[in-house]
Write a structure and sequence with these properties.
The structure holds two protein chains of two kinds.
Chain A: H1 3-34, H2 41-56, H3 64-84, H4 91-111, H5 119-128, H6 133-142, H7 150-172, E1 186-189, E2 192-195, H8 196-218, H9 220-230, H10 232-237, H11 242-264, H12 275-288, H13 294-314, H14 319-325, H15 327-337
Antiparallel strand pairs in A: 1-2
Helix pairs in contact in A: 1-8, 1-9, 1-11, 1-12, 1-13, 2-5, 2-7, 2-11, 2-12, 3-4, 3-6, 6-11, 8-9, 8-11, 12-13, 13-14
Chain B: E1 4-15, E2 18-24, E3 27-29, E4 33-37, H1 44-51, E5 58-63, E6 66-67, H2 74-79, E7 82-85, H3 97-104, H4 106-110, H5 116-126, H6 128-132, H7 143-155, E8 161-165, H8 173-188, E9 192-197, H9 200-206, E10 209-214, E11 217-223, H10 224-228, H11 231-238
Parallel strand pairs in B: 4-9, 4-10, 7-8, 8-9
Antiparallel strand pairs in B: 1-2, 1-3, 1-5, 5-6, 10-11
Helix pairs in contact in B: 3-7
The chains are: A mainly alpha, B alpha/beta.
Chain lengths: ~350, ~250
C-alpha cells in the first residue's frame, strides 16, 4: 500500500467514523437517560436517507402516513390517560400536538414544489417526516414499560427494530437510493483527492457534536437530561418527568440518525435495511466508551471507521468480522477494569 | 385558624402484603411547621413518598383543596409547589452546585417562570456556603453541605409545602442546629413545612404541631409544645430510658 492509498483509506475511515460517532453519541444518550439499548438507531439513518431521496426527486415523503398514524395513536393513548386522570382540559392540546399537526404538515407538503425547493429546505422537509418518529416510538413502545429491566427494554428495542425495518421495506421499497452530493467535485490536496461531500460530512458531524455539547452544557433541558442520567429519583423530585426526558432524548436520537442518513446518502447507496449495520458500528463505538462516556464513544467510533476502512483493503471479505471482533477485547478490558458504581446508593 | 394546606384521610401503603402505613390522617395548615416523629421503620419515609406520588397508596390526600392521590403525577405536584427533600438527598453528584440549584427551578422554567435568578440570590443568601462552592461538583461536598444543597435545590422550585425527610441524618450537632434554624427562617418566609425526624427533641423544638408515628399508624398527635412535656413521649423518645411502646 502506498501513501496515496493509505490517505484515501484514512479519509474514508474518518468520514464513516464521523457518522458512527454521531450515532454512538445518540446511543449513549438514550441509554444513559432511559436505559434503552437503542437497536433501531440505524433505522432512522435509513429513513432519513430514503426520505431525502424521495424529496429531492419531488416525491412526497413516503413515511408521512406512518407519522400521521402514529400521531393519532399517541393522541388516543395520551387522551385516554388524561381522561382517566380527570384532566380533560389537556385534551385539545394533546389532539392538536399529536394528530392535527402531522396532518397539517402532510397538507402543507403536498402544496410545496418539493423538487424546486432549495437543498436546505428539502433537508428540513425530510427531517420533519422522520424526526417525529422518535418521540412517537418512545411514547408507544417504551414509555409504558419505562420502569422495566434493561433486558426487557432491549427486547422491546429489538422488536421496534424489526417493525421499523419491515415498515421501511413497505414504505420505501426494496430499491436502494442515492442523492446528489451537497456540492459536486472536490479538491486535490497533495497526492489525495478529497470530495467536497467528505468535508461536508466531517464538518457537519463536528458541528452537530459541538451543538449537542452546547445543549448539554448550557441549556436547562440538556442539563435536565444529564441530571436524569445521573440520578433518576433526584430528577423526578425536581419535576423532570421520565416521560419528558425519554421523549426528548428519542427526539434527539431520531434527529441525529435522520441527519446522518442525509449526510451519507450522497456517498453510498442506502437500502431500507442498510441502517442496522451502520447503527451497530455506532454501537461498537459506544461500547468502547462503556455506554457512558461521550468523548470515548466518539473516539471509539472514529477507530471503528478507520479499522473498517483499512480492513476492507487488506481483507475485504472479513471487514465486518474484524470490526465486530473489536468488541471482544474491549468488553474484556472493561469487565476487568470497571468498578461498579451505582449513583443511587451514593450518599 | 389558618386554612388547611394538606390533609390525608385513611392513607394506607402496602409493600407487597405488608402494610407499611395504616390509615394515617395528618393535617398541615398554611405557614406551619408540622413534624412527624417516630422510631426507625415506623413508616415516616413511606408517608412522604406516598404524599409525593412516588408510591401507590390508598385513601385520600387533598392538597390545596384538590384531591391529588393517584391523579397528579410527581412533576404535576412539584409544579403545584409540593417539594420533597429526600433522606438520601439524591443530588446530581457530577454536576456543579450551581447546576443542581438551577435544575431545582426546572418545573418553574417549564411553565414559563424564568425569574429564577432572583430565587438563586435568595438561596445563596440563606446558604452562603453554597455560594462559595457554586462551581464545585455536588459529589465533593461534605454531609452538611449536601443537605444544604438539597434544601437549596428544593427552594429553587418555590415550594408552598416543603417536605424534609430526616434533614439531620448523619450530621454533626452544630450543623443540625444550623439546618433547623434555617427551617424556622423558611417558615418566616411563608413556606409551610412537613418535617420528618428521628431527632424528636430537635424537631419538637421548632415545630408547631406534631404526630408520633408508630408501626405505621399515628399513635399520638398534639401541639409540639405539649408533646415536649408529654410524659409518654418523654419516656419513649426524649428521655434516656424507656423501651416500651407509647401506644401500648
Amino acid at each position: 500500500m502506498d501513501s496515496a492509498v493509505a490517505l484515501l483509506l484514512a479519509q474514508d475511515g474518518f468520514t464513516n467514523g464521523a457518522i458512527y460517532a454521531l450515532l454512538s453519541l445518540a446511543l449513549v444518550l438514550v441509554f444513559a437517560v432511559t436505559r434503552v439499548i437503542f437497536i433501531p438507531q440505524g433505522e432512522y439513518v435509513a429513513y432519513g436517507a430514503l426520505t431525502m431521496a424521495a424529496v429531492v426527486t419531488g416525491q412526497l415523503p413516503p413515511t408521512m402516513w406512518l407519522v400521521v398514524t402514529l400521531g393519532i395513536a399517541v393522541a388516543i393513548v395520551d387522551g385516554v390517560v388524561a381522561v382517566r386522570e380527570g384532566a380533560k382540559s389537556r385534551l385539545p392540546l394533546i389532539i392538536v400536538k399529536n394528530a392535527v399537526l402531522p396532518i397539517a404538515a402532510m397538507v402543507v407538503v403536498r402544496l410545496l414544489p418539493l423538487k424546486e425547493l432549495s437543498y436546505p429546505l428539502q433537508v428540513l422537509v425530510a427531517l420533519a417526516f422522520v424526526v417525529p418518529l422518535g418521540p412517537q416510538v418512545y411514547r408507544l413502545a417504551f414509555q409504558p414499560v419505562a420502569e422495566a429491566s434493561v433486558l426487557l427494554l432491549l427486547i422491546v428495542s429489538v422488536a421496534v427494530h424489526f417493525m421499523m425495518v419491515g415498515m421501511g421495506l413497505y414504505f420505501f421499497g426494496a430499491e436502494g437510493a442515492r442523492i446528489p452530493p451537497f456540492t459536486e467535485g472536490g479538491l486535490t490536496l497533495g497526492a489525495t483527492f478529497i470530495q467536497y461531500q467528505t468535508i461536508w460530512i466531517v464538518g457537519i458531524a463536528a458541528l452537530l457534536i459541538a451543538g449537542l455539547a452546547l445543549f448539554f452544557e448550557h441549556s436547562i433541558y440538556g442539563k435536565a437530561l444529564r441530571a436524569t442520567a445521573i440520578n433518576r429519583t433526584g430528577a423526578r423530585l425536581m419535576g423532570i418527568s421520565a416521560d419528558l426526558a425519554g421523549k426528548l432524548c428519542f427526539t434527539l436520537a431520531a434527529l441525529v440518525g435522520a441527519f446522518s442518513g442525509i449526510l451519507i446518502a450522497p456517498i453510498t447507496t442506502v437500502y431500507y435495511d442498510t441502517g442496522f449495520l451502520i447503527g451497530l458500528k455506532g454501537f461498537v463505538g459506544a461500547i468502547i466508551g462503556g455506554l457512558v462516556s461521550y468523548p470515548l464513544a466518539a473516539a471509539g467510533s472514529i477507530l471503528v471507521g478507520l479499522l473498517e476502512s483499512y480492513s476492507s483493503f487488506y481483507a475485504s471479505a472479513y471487514k465486518e468480522v474484524i470490526v465486530f471482533t473489536l468488541i471482544i477485547p474491549v468488553l474484556l478490558y472493561q469487565s476487568l477494569t470497571t468498578k461498579h458504581v451505582d449513583d443511587e446508593d451514593e450518599h | 385558624m389558618k386554612p388547611i394546606l394538606l390533609e390525608t384521610r385513611g392513607l394506607c401503603v402496602n409493600y407487597g402484603r405488608v402494610e407499611a402505613i395504616h390509615k394515617v390522617g395528618i393535617r398541615i395548615r398554611q405557614g406551619e411547621i408540622v413534624t412527624v416523629i417516630g422510631p426507625n421503620g415506623a413508616g415516616k419515609t413511606t408517608l412522604l413518598s406516598a404524599l409525593m406520588g412516588l408510591l401507590p397508596a390508598r385513601g385520600e390526600v387533598s392538597y390545596q383543596d384538590q384531591s391529588v392521590l393517584g391523579t397528579l403525577s410527581v412533576d404535576a405536584l412539584v409544579a403545584k409547589g409540593l417539594v420533597l427533600v429526600p433522606e438520601k438527598r439524591e443530588l446530581f453528584g457530577s454536576m456543579s452546585v450551581a447546576d443542581n440549584l438551577l435544575l431545582g427551578a426546572f418545573a418553574r422554567h417549564r411553565r414559563g417562570d424564568r425569574d429564577h435568578a432572583k430565587t438563586l440570590d435568595e438561596v445563596y443568601a440563606i446558604f452562603p456556603r453554597l455560594a462559595e462552592r457554586r462551581k464545585q461538583e455536588a459529589g465533593t461536598l461534605s454531609g452538611g453541605e449536601r443537605q444544604m444543597l438539597a434544601m437549596g435545590r428544593a427552594l429553587m422550585a418555590k415550594p408552598t409545602l416543603l417536605m424534609l425527610d430526616e434533614p439531620s441524618l448523619g450530621l454533626a450537632p452544630l450543623i443540625v442546629k444550623e439546618i433547623l434554624r434555617i427551617v424556622v427562617q423558611l417558615k418566616g418566609m411563608g413556606v409551610s413545612i412537613l418535617l420528618v425526624e428521628q431527632n424528636a427533641r430537635a424537631a419538637l423544638q421548632v415545630a408547631d404541631y406534631a404526630y408520633v408515628l408508630e408501626n405505621g399508624s399515628v399513635a399520638v398527635e398534639n401541639s409540639a409544645r405539649a408533646l415536649l412535656h408529654d410524659p409518654r413521649v418523654i419516656e419513649s423518645y426524649l428521655g434516656l430510658g424507656g423501651s416500651h411502646s407509647i401506644a401500648a
